[in-house]
Structure formats: C-alpha cells, structure tokens
Write the structure tokens for this entry.
Amino acid sequence: MKKVFLTFAALGLMASVSFAQTWKADTYHSWVNFQVMHQGLSFVNGSFSKFDATIESNNGKLDGAKLTASIDVSSVNTGNQKRDGHLQAPDFFDAAKYSKATFVSKKFKKAGKNKYKITGDLTIKGVTKPFTFVAKQLGTFKGKNGTKTGFTATGTFNRHDFNISYGKGKKTPSGAEALGSDVKLVINIEFASK
Amino acid sequence: MKKLTLALLASLLVSHINFAQDTYKLDNLHTSIRFKVQHLGVALFTGGFDQFEGALKYNPANLKNAQLTFRVKVNSVNTGNQRRNMHLQKEDFFDAAKYPEMTFKSTYFKKAPKANKILVDGLLTIRGVTKNVTFEVKDLGARDVPNFGFRRGFTATTKIKRSEFGVNYGLKQKLLGDEVTIEVFTEFIKSK
C-alpha cells in the first residue's frame, strides 16, 4: 500500500514537473518600442535595447501564467543622442535614481483566438500603477533548440501618472499638447522554452 | 464694371495663391522610418533607419501637384544590435557599399476614400531596384508652433515584398518573411 502511494506521489510530482514551463525572452529577437505624440502632429518613436522578460506557467498553458519583465531605462534610444540623454534626466526617467521599469502580471487571461489580456503592476520612476497589455500570439515554432513563441503586445499609459511630467500643460496655440500625455508601448517579443 | 473686373482678378489671384505649393523641409528630429518583418512566423522583427533626408512640396487644396522625396542612408540601419546592423549592410541584405542609399520619389498624390488619408504613389529604389509603391498617408494636420515654425505631421505606411528588390536572405529557410511593412512618422517645417 505504501509502495502504491509512493508511486502515485511520484507520478503526481512528475506530472507537475513536466507541465511547469518557463519561457525566457529571446532579447535578440525582441523589441520594446514606444510612441508619443509631438505637437499633436506626429509621433516620436523610441525603443529600449536592454530588457528581460520571463513567463512561468504551472500547467504548460499561457492562460493563467505569470509574466515578469524589466527594462533598463538607460538603454532608451530615439535616434538622437542628445534627446536620449535628456530622457534619462529627472525631466523624464531619472535613470540615476530609477534605473529600471518593471511589470509584474497579476492576471494572464485568454481573450479570444491567439489573444491574451495581461493585467498587472507597471512601475516606472518608482511609481506603481495597474496596467494592461493586449497581446497577440503570432505563432509557435518548434526547433531543435526548443520551442519559440512570439507576441505583439500593446498598451497605453499616461506618463503624468508616473511623474514624467516634462512639458505638462504646455500647449500649441491650437490646443494640442506640445508633448503628448499618452505613451503607447508596442512590444514585439519572442520567448524560448527548452 | 472696372470694380467687378478688379474683384474678379483679385479673387483669381487669391485662388491662385491658395493652390500654390508650399515648400517644406524635413524635421529629422521628429521623424522616424521603421520596418517590420515576420521572424520564424512567430514574431515581428523590427528596426529603423537613423539618417535620412526629405523634401516636400505640399498644399492640401492642390494634392495633384504635391511632391515628396526621401533619401535614406542604408548604413544607418538600427535593429538594436550592432552585429546584426553590420550584417544588414552586407550583400545578404542591403549591400550598403554598392547601394548606399534607398530613395523614394513621389509620382502622384491623391485623396483616399478614408477621411484625412492620402495615397502617394511613387518610385521606391532599394538595392538599385526601382518599383512602384503606394503609401497610405495620414495627414495629421498643420500647426504654427512659436519658435519651431509652421509644421505638418504625417504618418505613412506601405507593404513591399523584399524579394522584388533582390533582398532574399532567409527566405528559403523561412527564417524571415518576404513581406516588409514600412512605417514613417514624420514632421515637415515650412520654408520661409
């Protein structure tokens, strides 16, 4: 009896081990981009080149998984060095004091075919606020080095909520914001699992 | 009668002025040229170009005489990784040594059915190959920004097949998709 029980316990353990899955971001094939409206006329685009993300699933499914991500704000790149320097100053990210922006999911929910809604805590410049990504899963690729899957995830936050208030209230004569409040994140990311 | 003639002349003059094309210079600091292509069929590979020039002759009331040119320095390609940027400049991709620039020259502007949208036909040259492409352009309007000039903003997008321009790396192995989406976010400043 004891033996049977042990076997069951072992099987149970194996099952839980084999279903648990960790996906690591393949940062070489991932891009974290953002867009902010300028003078109500066009969008300034930028990206971060240093970041990391992990998805952990208890049952091998993405539905109910946990996502943690972190961005090195000093890696900001807008195609202009002077502006990138300004973005790291206290006017924007204050990178010396708050070197990382992070996201920790609370809910990772299927929201349609190949679509997920990921809600959690976004922390930028030391301020934490609830944030939602809508992620579209583009496909899965099984290669000899493991499985890859990729997403396009988007979400918008108001930068003033995170004390990134440069140019706040400054408007063009026609009433448009000199620098928009809304920041749209567009993340194209690949994850690899072994 | 004289008065009427003068009034007619004046109105003709006014309408003539209204239809004249204004000359605009590209605001490089507020312009980005980006591209997207499928990688392994699982995600989108994205990048951009950091160095380019552009010129615009434009009047929204007289679209058919508008003119746009863009020149992009191929060796300014930026994908967030130096080694890969170098690879993109090799013969596998752009062959920057032989073809240092990509260019776009508009041939025809016309209103699109959707509001605020314009279709811009033109000749796109990549790697020495010239093809007709159509950009769908959104006119985001114009504003006079004190100290920063009278400016216009646009976003533009089109899709091309890179194989048509002889950029075939990774196609057979299905590493990288053939269809490339080009996205341009731009501001132009009116010349005085």
Summary: The two ends of chain A are 36 Å apart (CA to CA). The CA atoms of residues 40 and 176 of chain A lie 5 Å apart. Residues 2-19 of chain A form the longest helix (18 residues).
